[in-house]
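Lecture 7, part B: from sequences to assemblies.

Below are the input chains for today's worked example.
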Amino acid sequence: MNSKRKLTGKFWVYFFAYFLAIIMFIPLLWMIISSFKLPGSTVTVIGELLSPPYTLESFKEVLKPDGTAMMWRWTFNSVVVGVIQTVITVFVSSWAAFAVSRLDFKGKRLIFVLILAGLMVPMESIVVPLFNMMVSLNWVNTFHALIWPGMMLPLAFLILKQFIDQLPTELLEAAKIDGAGPFITWLKIILPLSKSSMAAVSIFVFIQSWNNLLWPLLVAQETSMMTLPVGIPTFQSNFATDLAVPMASNVIASVPALIVFLIFQKHIIKGISMTGIK
Amino acid sequence: MQSDTVVKKDLNKDIKKNINLASKRERMKNYVYALVFLAPFMVLYLWFWVYPIVQGFISSFYTGSYGVEQTFAGFENYIYMAQDSKFWVSFGNTLYFVLISTPTIVVLGLLMALFVNMKLKGTTILRSIYFMPYMLSISVMGSIWVFILQSRTGLLSETLKMVGITTEIQWFGSWEMGWLSILIATLWWTAGFNMILFLAGLQEIPDDLYEAADIDGASSWKKFWYITLPSLKGVTAMVILLQTIASFKLFGQTFLITNGGPGISTTPLVHYVYQIAFRQWEMGYASAVSFVLFIAVLLISLIQYKVTKTKK
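Predicted structure of the full complex, as structure tokens:
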């Protein structure tokens, strides 16, 4: 009797777990299927959705070079901004974290508190002065404006510092005895050891950058400077009833991210749990 | 004898001086190293975070637009804000979203984490599907939900028609429905992220707690109630605070899905700042509202900091 109860319990767990998964997957599946319909179709009727013809016409429509969509360009912009922001954030933060964690100097405490305070400032609350700065620097519609502001420096710093704090002192002492200065120590000891934390931070920073809407919306006003989150709604606003073409643009925008996710799933999940458990 | 001690003292002094000199040189060296390692970070940080905060605070006491001469206005912006009903509506909207999104995201995230942690068949698939929406660009997410929920031609409306329900639901037509749409989209998009946080929390619970409970013959429900839930207190507090902060930063969803409407009924604080700063070009007033946002998030973060501190 007990085992029977256990079995029905298990059935319901399976039922709800997969039911939730199906519900959550439907929007994605629907996006993919409708992107293969002919341009101009308003495919929300399920029967129509599940029957051919399926074509690549909508994708061609999105990607055609003389169209209003600049998918290649926006993807390129998003990738460039994301990669540069990630690389700069991770290395610059790693150096600073190393200094605060392992070097002795006066005013260390003050710097640490100053950086920690930055963790509590949302970028959203400083977009107005930042935009003003971009205007006076003449950076509106340039990569400078997209890249430099809004890097997740304090968060990256904190995670990397916590990791470097944990490293055994003997390791660094040994390097010192061997006559290694801080630069060699960072390059030969800190960098190789903190690779996985740096990867985790990178993923986090990249996702943040990839999804940033507000800031690029303000500083990328020219179509050619837009990133994907700004470009997609701009492009789609031309389509009121056509579903296939907007969905094709959604698919194109999502495929790289989904592939990255499937490949690096473990790292991504580890990265998020690391940034969460502060 | 006396002179002997004097000589000794002098000697000591000399040695000390030398040591001091060496340590001074050492300290100088450390300063230089620290400076080199910290400089790139601090330049970026001071330039693009600290300076704008100060600048924003100052301009909240001025009126004027971009590139125009600004005039000192004292507390005028803040006084105006206190009487600005639109500000209070958007502030209330933000709080309302905290109120509806926090419990739902905690329950859904926890549920997903429990499912994934149960070692069911196909766990990897479940986890991937739960998490996948979070990988979508915010604009893709927004576009999908607009096409699902829009009246007459939306996927949901067509599907309901097929089942015979022809009552039109205006998903973006009112305050309640607008926020419900934003809530659904946000849950779909970010519950997976919170699942990961809960999952990390679940995996930190030591197995022997459950083993001991098994020996005592505890039911799974009791184990959940007396072991799992209490052990997740810290993570839950963190998820709640993260979601509260996220609600205060809410912009993309309302901008893309409801465009803040109808009227300003689904306009949260950041969206309102966007409207005043970049639609009406009132920089001073926008800075004042931003400052309120800044203080609000600062306070919540301080609470979060305290909570995570006490957890440890």
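Note for the exam: Chain A touches chain B through 93 residues (CB under 8 Å). Keep this in mind when comparing with the next example.
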